[in-house]
Specification:
heterodimer, A: alpha/beta, FAD/NAD(P)-binding domain, 3 domains, 19 helices, 16 strands, about 35% helix, globular, B: about 280 residues, Elongation Factor Tu (Ef-tu), domain 3, Rossmann fold, 2 domains, seven-stranded mixed β-sheet, 9 helices, about 30% strand
């Protein structure tokens, strides 16, 4: 390593990983970001000035010791870097790919003020991918067993993070998944070009090698209720990480037309059921040469609109009611979408979906918006402009405006309190619900959020579960005003 | 993987499959369904549980498309790739009085466990089974063994009353012993016709809907139906709904979403296997 002064290090340009050519990749599902080379990673890591306060650590929802691992990368000691990351995050190959780093660790990096932040996400990913190529990566030792058994419900980010920690703490862990494949939103939601299946599989294999067992095709709340898991199946505690799996619709005319999907359905058909393959048994509307419109501005909207292009749409348009700078999606996804030719139509809101007699979607009627005063969340409120309605011809519409919490647990386990929005009431630090021995975390407790926040919740719950199993003491969460189970929606 | 314990033909292109499913057999209640995948590349399709006992459940499958066609080719000892359930809300079972349970075609398979549960809840249960011909009437003997009265109608008059189930229902609702409740399960036009007969008399009428589904747990929203002007998900809110509030036009249109794809896949299956498919 060449010796550079602190000032010189700060001024090094931020390294950019190689990316698949935009024109080529918009037709395939192979990964866009190709990752750092070792040389790039070391150079990028050298940009870290090892500032005393290390705000990046506090910026990370799971508190990865970024200020420790990045200098190890700069020194070329990738194995030590991997060990440091693994103390706080057992799924770094996933987080490095899907975390919104610009609003977390990288957003608070001191270099961001004058230069550009250290590319912490890409470094994390590099270390995780490098570690995987090492032979010792698969040789896991199992901790002595405590004899306690925990049921983890849902194999998405919250469940996997919780399972990983529980296994490390020596508990027997069984993960229950409703679908026929593991991974939850990482499998049915996030496309291959952003999170390749083999990266997910690698993490799942790692958990299996740590002694975690997996049961697919098991819908907790139906196949087994939470009570049955505790009383009949002999589990000592339950973690509910079932996600926010109930898509929201807009409530406008025409949402029942043929050609209108929720983003969950569209992405599930493509990602989980592989509907785009020529020999697929599961269909997806043929968008070749057609116009696809996606409503929303989050990561799911970006995933859907870019998937539309990959299925051969002539034009794939993201329609958003604010401007691009208010879009909640990761910056990288927005940039990639631009590069691939996604059309951004902002300051519009759909007011009606139009169809032909047979019930097939033909167009969307949009209304123009302008930005008004900031709302409660600080973002400027979109305000409709009267008389500005116009139509766009589209043949497929995908609605990506978020999810409500899944109602299945509440329907069959009335003693788990839910709030008015349908999320499970938990003690924020521990994830304890109102039911003895039952914990919850991720989107089912917070409403729709990010992969890393769900992982963070899964990890804190794992610690609380461990404490509960060892001490046997239980303190229910403060529920505040009386709240009942959600109304069926 | 789930093992098929028994497979037999009930009617043209209709198979009875008894499959090993100890947990679902213990948990299910009438009106609930499972999601099945026939092969590792297969589509997820919902099938209502028509019976169940010690360690097994029964599914009655009409070969109308590729996946149902593949399922109908399975024999005892073969395996299903995936089976998950029970899903959906169970049928509402209480003492209503006289309940008319109508099964059109394979709809009888869905109506059967609910009819039995209604009998157990001290209802007088009158069943109307409809089909194209004598051969298409299924579960007649089973129904006779449980319910108070069984009527049969066939389109061609080869068995029972010639005509449709509504021809038997219509005089019942205007007679002296007006039913307290009607449950109708079958093709959309049949369920719609039943709803129109009971609507003027405000007889509570329930239908079981079978929209296109993917996950079956509320996640995809593909099975959304319009009921009383509201969007409801058949997989978690249904599959049974108030017949007088269901928008059957939307349901019928949405069920034809992939008609072209399905026809191509179906034709391919017929070409490859020579299987005979039934009417949809």
């Amino acid at each position: 390593m060449t010796e550079r002064t602190r000032r010189e290090r700060m001024r090094l340009p931020r390294q950019k990983p190689a990316e698949q050519d935009a024109a080529v990749r918009s037709g395939t599902f192979t990964e866009v970001n190709l990752g750092f080379t070792p040389q790039q990673a070391m150079l990028e890591a050298e940009r870290c000035i090892e500032c005393k306060r290390a705000p990046c650590v506090a910026g990370c929802p799971v508190g990865i010791q970024i200020h420790e691992f990045v200098p190890r990368v700069a020194a070329g000691d990738f194995s030590a870097a991997a060990a440091i990351i693994e103390r706080d995050n057992l799924l770094p190959a996933i987080c490095g790919r899907v975390c919104p780093q610009e609003t977390q660790c990288e957003g608070v990096c001191v270099l961001a003020r004058k230069y550009t932040p250290v590319a912490i996400g890409n470094l994390e990913r590099f270390v995780a991918d490098w570690q995987h190529t090492q032979p010792q990566a698969t040789a896991q030792s199992r901790t002595a067993q405590t004899g306690k058994r925990v049921a983890v419900v849902g194999s998405g980010p919250a469940g996997l993070a919780c399972a990983a920690d529980l296994a490390r703490l020596g508990h027997g862990v069984t993960v229950f998944e409703a679908l026929h494949e593991l991974g939850g939103v990482l499998s049915y939601g996030i496309p291959d070009y952003r999170l390749p299946r083999e990266v997910l599989q690698r993490e799942l294999d790692g958990l299996a090698s740590r002694g975690v067992s997996f049961v697919t095709n098991a819908v907790v709340g139906m196949t087994d209720t939470v009570d049955q898991l505790l009383e009949e199946e002999g589990f000592d505690a339950v973690f509910l990480g079932v996600g926010a799996g109930l898509p929201r619709f807009l409530g406008i005319e025409g949402e029942d037309l043929v050609g209108v999907y929720s983003a969950n359905e569209f992405l599930t058909r493509v990602n989980l059921m592989q509907a785009h393959r020529s020999n697929a048994e599961t269909p997806v509307f043929d968008v070749v040469g057609q116009r696809v419109a996606v409503f929303g501005g989050g990561n799911t909207a970006m995933d859907a609109v870019r998937t539309g292009l990959r299925l051969g749409a002539a034009e794939s348009i993201v329609m958003y009611r604010r401007t691009e700078s208010e879009m909640p999606a990761r910056r990288e996804e927005i940039e990639h979408a631009h590069q691939e030719g996604v059309r951004f139509q902002t300051l519009v809101t759909p007011v009606e979906l139009l169809g032909e007699d047979g019930g097939r979607l033909t167009a969307v009627r949009l209304q123009r918006m302008e930005l008004g005063e900031p709302g409660p969340d600080g973002r400027p409120r979109p305000v409709p402009i009267p008389g500005s309605e116009f139509e766009e011809e589209v043949s497929v519409v995908i609605i990506a405006v978020g999810n409500s919490p899944n109602p299945l647990i509440g329907k069959t386990t009335p003693d788990i309190a839910h709030d008015r929005r349908g999320t499970i009431v938990v003690d924020p630090g521990s994830g304890r619900t109102t039911k003895l021995g039952v914990f919850a975390g991720g989107d089912i407790a917070t409403g729709g959020a990010t992969v890393i926040l769900a992982m963070g919740a899964g990890r804190s719950a794992a610690n609380a579960i461990d404490e509960y199993l060892r001490s046997g003491t239980w303190e229910p969460p403060d529920v505040g005003s009386p709240r009942g189970a959600p109304e069926p929606t | 993987m789930t093992t098929i314990l028994e497979s037999r033909t009930l009617a043209p292109a209709v198979k009875y499959l008894r499959v090993e499913a100890p947990k679902i057999a213990r948990r299910y209640r009438p009106g609930q369904f499972v999601i099945v995948r026939a092969t590792s590349e297969g589509e997820r399709i919902p099938l209502t549980i028509s019976d169940g006992d010690d360690g097994w459940i029964a599914l009655i499958v009409q070969a109308v498309g590729r996946t149902t066609g593949l399922l109908c080719l399975l024999e005892a000892g073969d395996e299903l790739q995936d089976l998950v359930g029970p899903l959906g809300m169970p049928s509402e079972i209480e003492h209503f009085g006289t309940v008319v349970v109508i099964g059109g075609g394979v709809g009888s398979a869905i109506a059967y466990p609910t009819a039995r549960a209604l009998v157990a809840a001290d209802n007088r249960v009158v069943t109307i089974l409809g089909g194209r011909t004598r051969q298409h009437i299924i579960l007649e003997d089973e129904m006779r063994a449980w319910v108070d009265e069984v009527h049969v109608t066939t389109d061609d008059g080869s068995h029972g009353t010639p005509g449709f189930v509504t021809d038997v229902l219509a005089p019942m609702v205007t007679g002296s012993d007006v039913p307290d409740r009607v449950l109708a399960i079958g093709p959309i036009p049949m369920m719609r016709a039943v709803a129109e007969i009971t609507r003027p008399l405000a007889i509570p009428t329930i239908v079981s809907l079978n929209p296109i589904m993917v996950d079956g747990t509320g996640m995809c929203g593909g099975c959304r139906v319009r009921v009383a002007g509201q969007t409801r998900f058949a997989c978690v809110d249904g599959p049974e709904f108030d017949a007088h509030l269901v928008d059957f036009d939307i349901l019928a249109r949405r069920n034809r979403s992939y008609a072209e794809f399905e026809t191509a896949r179906k034709d391919e299956l017929v070409r490859l296997t020579g299987i005979e498919l039934g009417g949809g």
